[in-house]
Amino acid sequence: MSKSLLEQLRQMTVVVADTGDIKAIEKFRPQDATTNPSLITAAAQMPEYQEIVDQTLLQAKKDAGSTASQKEIVTLAFDRLAVAFGLKILEIIPGRVSTEVDARLSFDTEATVTKARELIAQYQAAGVGRDRVLIKIATTWEGIRAAEILEKDRIHCNLTLLFGLHQAIACAEAGVTLISPFVGRILDWYKKDTGRDSYPAAEDPGVLSVTQIYNYYKKFGYQTEVMGASFRNIGEITELAGCDLLTISPTLLGELQATIGELPRKLDPATAVKMEIEQISVDQATYDKMHAADRMASDKLAEGIDGFTKALVSLEELLAQRLVTLEGKAVASH
């Protein structure tokens, strides 16, 4: 009997769920899970997760003290909410959860390191070891330097919003645990830039980018794991079968599960080792030069940080509104 594409993919690639929706994670039972500010903001607005939001807010209000302002309570709750979702997810999955540092710190190495350590401390206080958490950081030069510091302290990092080979090489040279190159967002940029409606999966610019990064890493023996992310269709996923990890939305996981057919392996370390590839060393000057020359990577990194920042502002507003509602209920019941 033929197997589903999802079942075959699991045999060669670690399948990760790209969602803050705990029910979807329970359904697909991935090895790992990733979240980001947009996903947490979306999940926080779902009625089924109101309890997590309310508990986080009420605990923050208690811990902040009776003299704390609404802003202080919301800030404390905001810092804790991603970890609260992460802890729920870790009850379901056997592997790791990725939790993102505030995108507004993307160009501040010191602040990113401090925030990452705070997140890890929250997980450890809840009894979760460092080996089960990946700290997500945007792949700016400052973010990569922060990850290098954290990795030396055994805090494992997932470098996100990654669009170019220069970013990937800098991450590998910094000893980062894992990178998340964004397939679909690269496709989005090329479609807009060229005016094309679509690309065949094998010619998809996002697929080609991740393939190039994967082959480079395997050719030169880097230990950093490659996790393709941000997919627009299952063709992009099947073209990357064999990648170390792929983080996939619940919708596309459902499509893969419902599709029966042969799934050949496309990425293989044994093939990459034999390739003729030039090795490049990426210092800050090289990073800046390559980044400036890559319009797509420059545009999408800036756009991604801006998008995550807007999601965080929305989440803060949502928490402030919910706190007013909860305080109103407390006064009424009193």
From TrEMBL:
It catalyses: D-sedoheptulose 7-phosphate + D-glyceraldehyde 3-phosphate = D-erythrose 4-phosphate + beta-D-fructose 6-phosphate. Keywords: Cytoplasm, Pentose shunt, Schiff base, Transferase. PROSITE patterns: TRANSALDOLASE_1, TRANSALDOLASE_2. One of its GO terms (biological process) is carbohydrate metabolic process. GO terms for cellular component: cytoplasm. One of its GO terms (molecular function) is transaldolase activity. Pathway: Carbohydrate degradation; pentose phosphate pathway; D-glyceraldehyde 3-phosphate and beta-D-fructose 6-phosphate from D-ribose 5-phosphate and D-xylulose 5-phosphate (non-oxidative stage): step 2/3. It comes from the Bacteria. The keyword Hydrolase does not apply. The active site is at residue 136. NCBIfam families: PRK12309.1 (NF008965), talAB (TIGR00874). PANTHER family: TRANSALDOLASE. HAMAP family: Transaldolase_1. Transaldolase is important for the balance of metabolites in the pentose-phosphate pathway. This is Transaldolase. It comes from Chrysosporum bergii ANA360D. The gene is tal.
